[in-house]
């Protein structure tokens, strides 16, 4: 187990790690993400005693790092750096075998156990066929797998990976990380990741660093959110839960909010996918969008949360609680415009319309390409009566999708 408590590291006067506390236990693959210069490599260097902390403590299997002999440290911690150069014309097998040196006595020759560990490591990283080749005559990606094999041959109790697979092609990335993931059941693994989707897929826990501090920590789903990515990397991204892997999937959104600035606050009342397109389009146009009340299994809910848009929610097939009604009334009051789609209305979601009708002030844009304010009404006419009431009060206007975006982006001119 690797434990860090209140770890500080300075380079001269500059504090590059600030009060870092984390734990990597056997069986938990811990990933570190963060922008360049946030301190990721320094963190691994502190754990492998390449840089000395200026505060806090590091423990490996309960022992303070400072009390561990160099030999024990060399045996128990393996590091795979981002890039390695091997100066001499060693064979692949020679380099992998170097992973065994910390285990050998002085001048001792490697035993059959050492050779077996070396063979196993080469097999796990798929480089057995290269074993007699010179490391100077293989590709960069192959060399990186050799270095990973050397770390595995060492049979460490703690494995530190610094963007160790970023130079590999995707199939080898997945292969090597799958191997390491399996190993993480036996040993403590901390890996710095560049690729957010690989981190989300392979890691059990993710620590997000920014300016030397932990900005967020938790499971991939807790940590990899549009809000955190925006805050830490200054990127706009959609995050959905992948239906097959069940892990967060990050897609960068090329249309940045910087392109179109717009401060219109729009609340969208929709359901059943009738709001998905308009929620995305409003978000792209830079509006400050809120949504709900929506059931958590609703397609519109998924569209909103993918973009990090706030949504008032209820569990599937549940009525709209008084709390949610109050939250909806507050959102409507705070909005400049409400967008209403022609989602079917039944007893379960009728309160959305009632709260909207009772709000009285905020203008309502009803999204309908046929120009008519109608919706599938399964409430015996109550939903339609709320619509009529808003139309009669000149609060509700029927608009098409294109007009709607135009209205929201030029709402001040109206
Ligand atoms: P990351 O791995 O997240 O890109 P690093 O840990 O490499 O970040 O660097 C963290 C900060 O420390 C950066 O501002 C970097 O410029 C600085 N830094 C890294 N190594 C040294 C060093 N040897 N001497 C002085 N400053 C350094």
Report on the architecture of this protein.
- The chain has 15 helices and 18 strands.
- By secondary structure, it is an alpha/beta fold.
- It folds into two domains: 2-250, 3-Layer(aba) Sandwich (Rossmann fold); 265-413, NAD(P)-binding Rossmann-like Domain (Rossmann fold).
- A six-stranded mixed sheet has the order 6-7-8-3-9-10, sandwiched between helices. Strands 15-14-13-16-17-18 form a six-stranded parallel sheet, sandwiched between helices.
- The longest helix is centred in the middle third of the chain and has 14 residues, at 140-153.
- The protein is elongated and about 95 Å long.
- The mean pLDDT is 90.
- The structure holds adenosine-5'-diphosphate.
- Adenosine-5'-diphosphate binds at residues 11, 16, 34, 36-42.
**Structure annotation, total helices:** 15
Shape: elongated
Q: What is the total tally of β strands?
A: 18
Q: Pairing-aware structural class of the strands and helices?
A: alpha/beta
- CATH superfamily membership of the largest domain, which one? P-loop containing nucleotide triphosphate hydrolases
Strand order of the largest sheet: 6-7-8-3-9-10
Low-confidence stretches: none
CATH fold-level label of the largest domain: Rossmann fold
As a whole number of angstroms, the C-alpha radius of gyration is 28 Å
Main beta-sheet annotation: 6 strands, mixed
Strand content: 15-25%
Helical residue percent? 25-40%
- Name of the CATH class of the largest domain: Alpha Beta
The CATH level-2 architecture of the largest domain is identified as: 3-Layer(aba) Sandwich
Ligands and ions found:
adenosine-5'-diphosphate
Terminal Cα separation, in Å? 62 Å
Mean of pLDDT: 90
The total domain count is 2
